[in-house]
Design brief:
The protein has helices spanning about 5-15, 30-40, 45-55, 55-80, 85-100, 160-165, 165-175, 220-250, 260-280, 320-335, 340-349, and strands at about 105-115, 130-140, 145-155, 185, 190, 195, 210, 305-310. By secondary structure, it is α/β, with parallel strands linked by helices. The longest helix has 27 residues, at about 220-250. Helix 2 (about 30-40) packs across helix 4 (about 55-80). Strand 2 (about 130-140) and strand 3 (about 145-155) form a beta hairpin. The chain starts with a helix and ends with a helix. It is built from eleven helices and eight strands. The strands form two sheets. Strands 1, 2, 3, 6, 7 and 8 form a six-stranded mixed sheet that branches.
Length: about 350
């Protein structure tokens, strides 16, 4: 984060985190924000922040929670997409230019935010991998900015219930996210809805596409293999976005030691800070990301500390309309929308 971006952030959140105690040794807005950013960016414990800034242990805990809450409240309307038809209509242009996927509004995935077991929580947050976690569901655009997030589902929630019970999932299922009207991707295709890209963990809906089943288990027909590859090229944007966030905010490199409310608030703050810094500094951090962003590698993201992938989030059932839309896209990718690299990639598999 550059000095100018930090000063801008101080101006935005300063009035809300400024302290007014009667003692003369008050903690300044800059110190509060610096301590919070260092905690998020370094992955150090709160005790380390206590010694580094000479602030009491209880005070550090309260200040970090308060500052993260203010960051979320101040920035979420500025850097996340409000479900609005006009704003949604601007996103598919980048997806088609960068990923060659038409009518795509974003890519979606979920991660387990690993944390130390909360006091008196029992097995409420105990997931199938043997750790305690909350779930972060997120959607991003083609430039690695988060657009929609749903934070806080317990790690033990049933696979089918995570997506269907989240506000984001309800928006997709009931089709009330205000996506633009259907649009033709080719003169022979007919109108096709705007949609997001997900993996097999998500249900197949008219506004949410996932791959044809059978990858790695059997030889798929050529058209289905091409569709899966093209979808994977678009869907890797969300994997890269999670990687960028974990690379910059290293609090996610190991289990988070904090209370339930603090873990959720830290996650919210990291999401909006990720977008804020990228938008303020022209994609800052992308060139420093240790992963491969623009090559034709597998889209399987390697777990990093406190961020682990989630598995099935929906059912295998789908409507005839969703199947018909996926088949139209499959035919388009093998005909009018075909590219030379897709065949080269499939030959090398």
């Amino acid at each position: 984060m550059s000095a100018s971006t930090f000063e801008e952030l101080v101006c935005l959140v300063g009035p809300k985190i400024k302290r007014f105690p009667s003692r003369p040794d008050i903690i300044s807005v800059g110190e509060i924000l610096t301590a919070t950013l260092r905690y998020l960016a370094s992955g150090e414990s709160m005790m380390s922040i206590t010694y580094g800034f000479r602030i009491g242990k209880a005070t550090v805990s309260k200040l970090i929670l308060q500052c993260c809450e203010v960051l979320w409240d101040t920035l979420n309307q500025k850097v996340l997409v409000v479900p609005d038809t006009f704003k949604w209509a601007q996103l598919p242009v980048d997806f088609e230019r960068i990923c060659q996927v038409p009518n795509c509004i974003g890519s979606i995935d979920g991660k387990h935010i690993i944390h130390q077991a909360f006091a008196n929580s029992g097995s409420e947050h105990y997931n199938y991998k043997g750790s305690h976690s909350n779930i972060l569901l997120a959607m991003c655009d083609a430039k690695y900015n988060f657009t929609l997030v749903d934070i806080g589902a317990a790690g033990r929630c049933s696979d089918g219930g995570v997506f269907s019970n989240s506000e984001m999932g309800k928006g997709f299922i009931h089709n009330n996210l205000n996506f633009p009207a259907d649009k033709e991707i080719h003169e022979n295709s007919g109108p096709i809805p705007y949609y997001a890209l997900g993996d097999e963990a998500f249900p197949l809906l008219s506004n949410l596409m996932h791959p044809y089943p059978g990858r790695g288990k059997r030889k798929l027909p050529l058209k289905e293999s091409i569709f899966n590859y093209r979808l994977s090229r678009g869907r890797r944007t969300i994997e890269n976005t999670f990687g960028l966030m974990a690379s910059k905010w290293r609090i996610f490199r190991k289990p988070i030691i904090a209370g339930h409310k603090t873990v959720n608030t830290i996650t919210k703050a990291a999401v909006v800070l990720h977008n804020f810094v990228k938008l303020s500094e022209n994609n800052a951090g992308v060139r420093y990301y240790s992963g491969t962003l623009d090559t034709e590698q597998s889209n399987q993201w390697e777990p990093q500390g406190a961020l682990e992938p989630v598995h099935r989030l929906g059912t295998n059932t789908y409507t005839a309309d969703a199947k018909a839309i996926r088949d139209k896209l499959k035919d388009y990718f093998s005909a009018e929308g075909a590219t030379l690299f897709q065949y080269e990639r499939l030959i090398n598999l």
